[in-house]
Amino acid sequence: MNRGQRIGRNLSFLILSGAFLTLTSCAGFLGGGMDIAAFSRAAAEQTYTQALSSGVGSERKEDSGSLNLPKCREIALANNLSLHMAKLEEINRSHISMADWSKMLPHVILAAKFDQGDNVLFSDLPGDAYWSEFYARSAWRVFLEARWSPTDVALAYYTARNASNRALQSVYEKARLGQKIVEGVEVSFFRLLTVQECLPLAKTLVSLRSDITNRMDRLVRERLVSQDDYEKALNDEMRAQYLDAELKVELERQASALATYMGRSRRAAGEPLFLAVKGSLSCPEADEAPRDPELTALRNRPEIVALGLKQQESSNEFRKSVLKNFPRLSLFWRYLKEPYHDHRRRDGQQAGLLLYVDLVDSLSQIKETQISSNQRLRSQLELSAITLAVASQAGVAAKKFQIAREKAALRAKAAVAAERVMRAAEQRAQGSNLSEIAQMKARAELTGEKIELLKALGDANVCLAELRSALGVNYAAPLH
């Protein structure tokens, strides 16, 4: 078999092996699609089962079915899955940063090489043809090399700085995520507490409106009350029933939302509902809102710092693109050993300097520099846009909080007025059906005003939670 036939045989074997491996990989990927889907569904079911088994049942035993606000915050920050993913991302970026800083060290390479050729060399010495042919066709080399490039070190420096910035950026992103989680917990907590406080009053209101309708039903047949008053009583009863049903649905929704933020399942052991909260609804103080909410938000919101780090990253990328336009410089030292068993000695040391320019890459680097310059300008514009958005969000949240407090104060005055009307109706009670109906109406109006007052107080506390989140003061995350 000559040299061309051997080369053709080896090339054919490599092509057939590559085709076989490619087809095997494709068949495994296509055939495993259904297995991946089944695995995903099984993993989701297992996660839900674990949430059921490790739900809020332990806290329910400790707190008799009720959780206060600090306990809800603690559970959410400890168990929220999004926060766990953010912590893992922070750890990964920290490892990437350390790996990128290590790229600035010199490269040390230890390698061994063996090759075999089909060339035949003849020695000048008589009778030495076989020896020369054998040792020229089979050879192996060992070398130790240290290589260091100032250009690569400069590029690795900016790459490592970007990795460090991304690692620090993940810390501030995690802090902002924690603030959003605390905001969601507080909002759901106060809404759930409001519904829990309103439900008994709603049941009382339905009972009062039903009694009024039943009494007026008899009086309208006796023509003691008008048909319009009777229809108005029916409408009031329907509105009370609708309010009761709406509160029950809202109770389920807010309980589920709060349990989701806490990373737990609201249902466990077949119980329909066990998540309940305890606390008091009071009107927040006016000094909760700072005089300059926009400036306070810009000083405390973590994403402002994260965007600043992102802007530095774009500046470093621009410097890297500029460095790539310069010639590459590389220094090396090499120790080479070629163990030939003849009179020739191939061992030795080499040291040198390599300076080169890739003309094709230089053309593409011009465009990359332009792209990096545009990205740096874009990051500056993004920082300005986010800054204005954060300031606007803080200002709007402060205004909403102020309006919610004013509404709560007006509802409190309305409840006091309704209580005065009820007392006056009780004093005027003469034992007749009409006076009893008037007294029941006054009591129903007072109950309705109490419900509206509780809603207003709940909205004020919800607006306070949103304001504290917009200001970035509701959760001080550790930044290390």
Characterize this entry briefly.
The protein has 480 residues and is an alpha+beta fold. The protein is built from twelve helices and six strands. The strands form two sheets. Strands 2-3-5-6 form a four-stranded antiparallel β-sheet.
Question: Can you walk through the features of this model?
Answer:
The protein contains 12 helices and 6 strands. It is 72% helix and 9% strand. It is elongated. The strands form 2 sheets. It has a 4-stranded antiparallel β-sheet with strand order 2-3-5-6. Strands 1-4 form a two-stranded parallel sheet. The longest helix has 72 residues, at 150-221.
Number of domains: 1
- Strand proportion, as a percent range, falls in 5-15%
Largest sheet: 4 strands, antiparallel
Low-confidence stretches: 27-34, 55-64, 127-136, 268-273
Whole-angstrom Rg: 39 Å
**CATH topology category name:** Outer membrane efflux proteins (OEP)
CATH architecture, by name, is: Up-down Bundle
Kindly, what is the distance between the CA atoms of the first and last residues, rounded to a whole number of angstroms?
Answer: 69 Å
CATH class: Mainly Alpha
Overall spatial form: elongated
Q: Kindly name the structural category.
A: alpha+beta
User: Helical residue percent?
Assistant: over 70%
Placed side by side, the strands forming the largest sheet appear as 2-3-5-6
Strand and helix map with partners:
Blueprint: H1 3-31, H2 33-53, H3 57-63, E1 66-67, H4 69-79, H5 81-102, E2 107-116, H6 129-137, E3 138-148, H7 150-221, H8 227-261, E4 276-277, H9 293-300, H10 302-323, E5 328-337, E6 348-356, H11 359-427, H12 433-471
Parallel strand pairs: 1-4
Antiparallel strand pairs: 2-3, 3-5, 5-6
Helix pairs in contact: 4-7, 5-7, 7-8, 7-10, 7-12, 9-11, 10-11, 11-12
